[in-house]
Specification:
single chain, 423 residues, mainly alpha
């Protein structure tokens, strides 16, 4: 009997957000509350993006070895184990080394899970069903982000009140709960996921493993060479510079902005509690990102991308002024902070639409999937390196001067957009 997609599509995408949020946001809040400096936090947590940088190397293996269903089920169990590992090591004497190791495991297993889910979805449903469930999977992905970045952070804050500011215990309980959720999802999907006929590894292993791996390596090198030679040199260089430079301000800004929200007021921060952070950054910000992305797609579909290139570039950078305002005034009420975060996240999502569409345009042609993977890997690498040292820069400059520097770096976004060939 055919298993209804309603039984597994929502729950599959419910599991796509927590691992990402845990490695990009919860880890920073945890380390901040455990006493690490901003410089240490940004340096350590930047490594959790390593799976995204290496995605072009491991992503093809999902379709070449084992079935997508196998990868989905196995990675959900591994994600649950990684959450449990983080929870177990937080109260111990080796909490830093232990949590970093398990966060790295969580980052890799979560990234593989996300890729396997999208691939399994595409081979398990026909075109009509995929179109029907597009909105459903997007909605459950957004809900999973709000759950992890909003609800779980609020729960951690409430547990700290209940257990008289026992930070280690509160976060450990939150991560144990996440582990339990993924074990439950693993049991459910192990029983309910369909076995699609097209869901099999496609690589024809000859029996000579070194020769097979050599052939695979040469194919990857050929596709990499085509990535940098598919257009004339000027366009290739301009596009690569665009990929690296356009998001430089956001790369510097992203981690420090979250630490700024929770940093103590005597350090120049806003001193938000976990509950307040969960509301403004985990709920309001996610809604603003969704609305900004939707608005960006609507105006591009209506007017074309070229008309909106410069407004979108401005929308990506100018809202950083709001954080400069917050750093200079340190408002005591939550309403102005919430409004500033909403406007910033909306503008960032709206403006990033132009960036993502440029990556898609460059990736078109032969080996489109591989080239898009390379574009996103380069994007992530260019994002990670500045973010590693953003905390040290902030500590050297202070929050107001740091946000002013981020605004100045917006010139790289405008320059990289100006150098793109006009088509």
């Amino acid at each position: 009997m055919t298993k209804s997609p309603w039984k597994w599509v929502p729950t599959l995408y419910l599991g796509t957000g927590p691992a990402l949020v845990a490695t990009t946001t919860l880890s920073m809040l945890l380390y901040k509350q455990l006493g690490l400096t901003n410089a240490e936090i940004t340096l350590y947590t930047a490594w959790f993006f390593l799976p995204q940088v290496l995605r072009p190397l491991w992503a093809p293996l999902i379709e070449l070895t084992k079935s997508r269903r196998w990868w989905v089920v196995a990675m959900q169990l591994l994600v649950g184990a990684a959450f449990g590992g983080v929870a177990f090591t937080i109260p111990t004497a080796y909490w830093l080394q232990g949590t970093i190791c398990f966060f790295l495991l969580l980052a890799f297993s979560g990234a593989i899970y996300d890729t396997a889910v999208d691939s399994f979805y595409s081979v398990s449903l026909d075109d009509d069903a995929q179109q029907h469930f597009t909105g459903i999977r997007s909605a459950f992905y957004r809900f999973s982000i709000i759950f992890a970045q909003g609800f779980l952070v609020m729960v951690a804050g409430n547990l700290q009140l209940l257990y008289r500011n026992s930070i280690s215990l509160s976060w450990s309980l939150v991560f144990y709960a996440a582990a339990g959720l993924f074990i439950a999802l693993w049991l459910w999907h192990r029983a309910i996921l369909p076995h699609a006929r097209a869901d099999e590894g496609r690589y024809d292993w000859s029996g000579d493993l070194p020769a097979d791996l050599s052939d695979l390596w040469h194919e990857m090198r050929r596709r990499l060479h085509s990535f940098v030679t598919k257009y004339e040199r000027r366009r290739v260089v301009a596009t690569l510079f665009f990929i690296v430079a356009f998001l430089l301000p956001e790369a510097l800004f992203s981690k420090v902005s979250m630490l700024f929200l929770v940093d103590a007021e005597h350090n120049g921060g806003l001193g938000l509690s976990p509950q307040e952070f969960g509301w403004v950054q985990g709920t309001v910000a996610v809604v603003a990102l969704s609305l900004g992305s939707l608005a960006g797609g609507i105006v591009v579909n209506r007017d074309g991308l070229r008309r909106w290139l410069w407004p979108m570039t401005a929308a990506t950078n100018l809202p950083h002024l709001l954080y400069l305002y917050l750093a200079l005034t340190q408002p005591g009420g939550l309403l102005p902070i919430t409004l500033c975060i909403f406007v910033h996240q909306f503008g960032c999502a709206f403006g990033t639409t132009a960036y993502l569409l440029q990556l898609i345009h460059y990736s078109r042609g032969p080996h489109q999937t591989t080239h898009h993977l390379l574009c996103t890997a380069l994007m992530t690498a260019s994002f990670v390196l500045p973010s590693m040292f953003s905390g040290a820069l902030q500590m050297a400059l202070g929050y107001p001067a740091f946000f002013l520097m981020v605004l100045a770096c917006g010139g790289f976004s405008f320059l990289s957009m100006a150098l793109l060939p006009k088509r």
